[in-house]
Amino acid sequence: MPEYAFIGRSNVGKSSLINMLTSRKSLAKTSGRPGKTQLINHFLINKEWYLVDLPGYGYAKVSKTTKKVFQKFITQYFNLREQLVCAFVLVDIRHEPQPIDLEFMQYLGENGIPFCIIFTKADKLKPHAIDMHVENYRTVLLETWEEMPKHFITSSSKDIGKEDVLEYIDSLNQNMVDAPL
Ligand code: GDP
């Protein structure tokens, strides 16, 4: 069964996004406090694909040991990644590109792992500011990448971007049916 992994810095809005995509408010736990999603969870969607909820990275308030454990889970998952089709890297649309996110994308690229960017919390910015932030991201990414990775603009609180992400996943699933690896 194809898998799609969701990952990002703690508090980026991953649980809320997963709940929006799955339309089940209580599926992934959300909290105002970072650090709640700690293990890898697989959610079967439409009996067609797995949504893989990976631990957050970049916690400010956890010990070095905990950070290492999270890192181990993440790298173990990506090392195996037998069924992984695409990783979705979540970034908060309001922030400047953060070194930790750029490094993580670099890691995915170096390991040949396809990924997309999901900009979260778009409701917090006006449309022109959204464009500006995405352009800013593009400029920074183009310093190391040949092109801007595919990206989505979402807001879990305003239900924005859900169909775009789900349709993209469907299209990738369809491609695999048409042309299995
Ligand atoms: P996680 O740690 O990445 O799983 O983040 P959560 O989903 O728990 O969200 C962290 C905080 O951001 C919570 O207070 C959420 O209510 C808030 N949040 C998440 N998504 C959105 C969004 O799209 N818009 C707004 N305004 N707040 C959001």
TrEMBL record:
This is Probable GTP-binding protein EngB. GO terms for molecular function: GTP binding; metal ion binding. Necessary for normal cell division and for the maintenance of normal septation. The keyword Metal-binding applies. CDD domains: YihA_EngB. The keyword Methyltransferase does not apply. It holds the Pfam family MMR_HSR1. It comes from Bizionia paragorgiae. Keywords: Cell cycle, Cell division, GTP-binding, Magnesium, Metal-binding, Nucleotide-binding, Septation.
